[in-house]
Design brief:
This protein has two domains: about 190 residues, 3-Layer(aba) Sandwich (Rossmann fold), CATH 3.40.50.300; about 120 residues. Helices cover about 55% and strands about 10% of the residues. The strands form two sheets. A five-stranded parallel beta sheet has the order 4-5-6-2-7, sandwiched between helices. Strands 1-3 form a two-stranded antiparallel ribbon. α5 links the parallel β4 and β5.
Length: about 350
């Protein structure tokens, strides 16, 4: 999802970020491995998108190359190692590499759809070099989900016979995208979504001009992912969510005037990002209402509005199968809409008619 320039200017790249918020359990695990001198040659950092896996990886790399302390919070950039950190941030440290999707070397110069075997061969050659400034040679693959099968097979050969003093960190959004043989040769560290407070702290630190009254809602909608929160800001997600709740607040009755106005505004090609944000929010909202209506995950009530709670109270007496079938039909409709390019206005109207029918 593209971000506008105003937001991009306020967000540092993960390798440049000077603070790490959250993930204390994972920090403790890695710090223990360092202190016990039992550092595995390869780690998989897995977890949902946008929760800070890349930031975590770069903080760890800085600690390795500076022989510093790896911890949550601000990175201790002491004077004697400041030049090393600056090299890592600039991408010029000779003992550190980033493997990611690159642009094609021939026209059209577009971002390639995957990480190829050639990219992994570059890493293999790098590992044959003698370290220049550090005891370690380190590589971050971000994201490992982008590796095609040939690339993963090439990586497997490195993992089977890792050179001495080499460290590979695979940033992975879904571990199911990796070959079982790759997973078995790495230590997997699962990073969890951040707390609501931590998400709000990050948003305040980024100074994205979010009103305080909206921070709680934004942190709830993001589900512990600052990346999701930023995407919601960029696509006007907060206003779209408030519109959604206003349309359905009297289920099974719908605010039809607002529904048609919203469907009209999101049906044009220029509003594709907002359309996708809106439909994602509908699915997220309906699944949460279902969970709350059957008494599961009641901790979510901290971020639910009075209008939403009224809906939960209304549909809690409904048959669970009716609600789940409606959720499945909406999912199928959205997938079909993408596949055969259905009229977006009609798709939105049909979704809300399904919600209305399920709430009767």
């Amino acid at each position: 999802m593209a971000m506008n320039s105003e937001i991009i200017e306020k967000i540092e790249a993960p390798r440049s970020t000077s603070s790490l918020i959250g993930h204390q359990d994972a920090v403790d695990t890695m710090e223990m491995a360092i202190s016990n001198n039992k550092l595995p040659h390869a780690w998989i950092l897995t977890g949902p998108k946008g929760i800070g896996k890349s930031t975590f990886a770069w903080h760890f790399i800085k600690a390795i190359h500076t022989k510093g302390t790896f911890k949550s919070g601000a990175y201790e950039n002491v004077k004697k190692t400041e030049h090393i950190v600056n090299q890592i941030v600039a991408g010029s440290h000779p003992d550190c590499r980033l493997i990611r999707r690159n642009n094609n070397t021939k026209p059209p110069y577009r971002l390639r759809k995957d990480i190829s075997v050639e990219d992994i061969r570059v890493m293999t050659h790098f590992f044959k070099l003698t370290p220049t400034l550090s005891d370690w040679r380190t590589v971050i693959i971000d994201s490992a989900d982008d590796m095609n099968q040939n690339a993963q097979n090439a990586l497997l050969k490195v993992l089977e016979e890792p050179p001495r003093k080499t460290l590979i960190i695979l940033v992975c959004h879904s571990i199911n995208n990796l070959l079982p043989t790759v997973i078995s040769r790495c230590l997997t560290l699962k990073l969890r979504p951040l707390s609501s407070k931590q998400v709000k702290d990050i948003l305040r630190e980024l100074n994205l001009n979010v009103p305080n009254k909206d921070l709680q809602l934004l942190s709830t909608l993001s589900e512990g992912s600052p990346g999701n929160a930023i995407n919601l800001i960029e696509t006007n997600g907060l206003d779209l969510y408030k519109t959604l709740v206003e349309i359905v607040c009297n289920l099974p009755l719908l605010n039809e005037n607002l529904l048609h106005k919203t469907a009209d505004s999101l049906s044009s090609d220029s509003e594709e990002l907002s359309y996708r944000t809106f439909t994602d929010l509908i699915l997220w909202w309906f699944s949460r209402v279902i969970r709350l209506s059957v008494g599961k995950n009641c901790n979510e009530e901290a971020g639910i509005s009075s209008d939403e709670m009224k809906i939960v109270d209304h549909i809690s007496s409904n048959d669970l199968d009716i609600l789940l079938n409606a959720w499945n039909r909406i999912n199928i409709l959205l997938k079909r809409a993408d596949k055969v390019n259905l009229d977006r206005k009609q798709v939105i109207l049909n979704i809300f008619f399904e919600l209305s029918k399920a709430a009767r």
